[in-house]
Amino acid sequence: MGRKSQSKQNQKKSTGKENNKLYLQKRKELAFLVDRVLRLTSIFQATGNVSKSWEHHLEIEKLVNEITNIEGTQLRNTRTLRQTHIDKYLQWLRENGVQFDGIEIAEFKGYDLGLKALKDFTEGSLILTIPSKVMITEKNAKESELSAFIAVDPLLQNMPNITLALFLLLENNNPDSFWKPYIEVLPEKYSTILYYTSEELELLKPSPVFESSLKLYRSIARQYAYFYKKIHTLDIPVLKKLQEVFTFDSYRWAVSTVMTRQNNIRLSEADVTAFIPLWDMCNHEHGEIRTDYNNELNRGECYALRDFKTDEQIFIFYGARPNADLFLHNGFVYPNNQHDSLSVTLGISSGDPLREIKMSLLTKLGLGCVTHYSLFKRQNPIGPELLAFIRIFNMNQEELTKWSSQSLPSDLVSSEPSSAEAVGADIDRRAHTYLLTRCKLLLAAYKKNDNENRTETDHVSNVKLLKQCEVQILEATVTYLEETIRTLPTAVKQ
Ligand SMILES: C[S@@+](CC[C@H](N)C(=O)[O-])C[C@H]1O[C@@H](n2cnc3c(N)ncnc32)[C@H](O)[C@@H]1O
């Protein structure tokens, strides 16, 4: 061996040593940060102190930023532009028996990709059929090398969506994956709150989705830390593979893929969480669920929810979900959402001298543990539970005693004229006036926190849209309450 090549080898050895030292150093720093995330999130779980949730979030986010700085953005660098893979994807779908005549994948402003009609479809006609073999299901995950980890991990045993996320990470890194053409057309990143900065999240105030977002972020940061620890300490072969790909960035990508694209299908008598290729390219619009799983033919079937003309985008209906859910779990807001509602936090204060009797009456109606009530986007925004709460909340001792003597005071949950008469205009006036004041206070809080002057990024416009929808519900509720109070019969002293 010549002197040159020996010195080259020595150089290689010392670079190898350096790299190893760097790697161990990185691992040590990450292990420290991961422990801190676990500790911080468990303190919060134990105290559940909502008033401190924002400070907690900022601390968690700071740790997560330190973690991602060390880990780097591995995943994004390895994923290429999804559009470049569409042709190969369509070929793979055809080869595996997916039927989608007269349909192509296209870009639509505000939706990213979607399905485009290349011919007219009439309402009820079959648009897509997707054989089960192209789907990625929790069953595939359980039958894969991940099974050894699932067998010892209680979280994976109970949460199929997380199992699917880890399985997706493995398949994303598997060059021979059967689903490679599908995975290559998945988005590189998502509009879920896991991609929001804290400045963007803060814009959600005073929406109830602000707290839900912090909770979701906290829970994903905790899951990341939990799995990081397991992946680096347990001796299971598949975890060696996960060590190479598991970072906060890749985990939020996998979790967001699951959140925005998962479907539940009924496979041999059991509900199974799954990715359904092509079906999951459909964007949402209002309508009816016209998608189903055909157990005889072992395939998913998607029927047109209305007529679609040539060149139009083909939509499906994701289900009756309020915008808060769509925002949090799907990363978008649907302005004309007929199933929208706004959650308001209401409860009997611990200082209320009538708390005990009010709570026992609420418990009789099954509302003892309810802390959030919905205002609905419809002509009468007040549901039976909220109606009962505001009535009970505003009763005096005498009224509470009277209503508590009934075994099931069902009139309290009803706005039918006979029930309203039984409850009496006096109680209803106080109840509706109380709610009116609450709604006006909430509206004032939205005005104070309006984000008019913020630079319009996709995240900011989603937040603005969500809050606009919430304000509309509140304004409609105020109008409804004012009208209800105005038309209540004049109170008769009993
Ligand atoms: C199942 S995927 C649909 C395909 C997706 N557009 C894509 O490019 O892969 C669901 C995602 O599509 C987007 N989306 C679906 N319906 C939408 C709508 N009505 N408005 C805006 N975005 C929508 C959201 O980003 C959502 O997370």
UniProtKB/TrEMBL annotation:
<dbReference type="GO" id="GO:0005737">
    <property type="term" value="C:cytoplasm"/>
</dbReference>
<feature type="region of interest" description="Disordered">
    <location>
        <begin position="1"/>
        <end position="20"/>
    </location>
</feature>
<dbReference type="InterPro" id="IPR046341">
    <property type="entry name" value="SET_dom_sf"/>
</dbReference>
<dbReference type="GO" id="GO:0018064">
    <property type="term" value="F:protein-L-histidine N-tele-methyltransferase activity"/>
</dbReference>
<dbReference type="InterPro" id="IPR025785">
    <property type="entry name" value="SETD3"/>
</dbReference>
<dbReference type="InterPro" id="IPR015353">
    <property type="entry name" value="Rubisco_LSMT_subst-bd"/>
</dbReference>
<dbReference type="GO" id="GO:0016279">
    <property type="term" value="F:protein-lysine N-methyltransferase activity"/>
</dbReference>
<dbReference type="InterPro" id="IPR036464">
    <property type="entry name" value="Rubisco_LSMT_subst-bd_sf"/>
</dbReference>
<dbReference type="InterPro" id="IPR044428">
    <property type="entry name" value="SETD3_SET"/>
</dbReference>
<protein>
    <recommendedName>
        <fullName>protein-histidine N-methyltransferase</fullName>
        <ecNumber>2.1.1.85</ecNumber>
    </recommendedName>
</protein>
<keyword id="KW-0963">Cytoplasm</keyword>
<dbReference type="InterPro" id="IPR050600">
    <property type="entry name" value="SETD3_SETD6_MTase"/>
</dbReference>
<comment type="similarity">
    <text>Belongs to the class V-like SAM-binding methyltransferase superfamily. SETD3 actin-histidine methyltransferase family.</text>
</comment>
<dbReference type="Pfam" id="PF09273">
    <property type="entry name" value="Rubis-subs-bind"/>
</dbReference>
<keyword id="KW-0808">Transferase</keyword>
<dbReference type="Pfam" id="PF00856">
    <property type="entry name" value="SET"/>
</dbReference>
<feature type="domain" description="SET">
    <location>
        <begin position="101"/>
        <end position="319"/>
    </location>
</feature>
<keyword id="KW-0489">Methyltransferase</keyword>
<keyword id="KW-0009">Actin-binding</keyword>
<dbReference type="InterPro" id="IPR001214">
    <property type="entry name" value="SET_dom"/>
</dbReference>
<dbReference type="GO" id="GO:0032259">
    <property type="term" value="P:methylation"/>
</dbReference>
<dbReference type="GO" id="GO:0003779">
    <property type="term" value="F:actin binding"/>
</dbReference>
<keyword id="KW-0949">S-adenosyl-L-methionine</keyword>
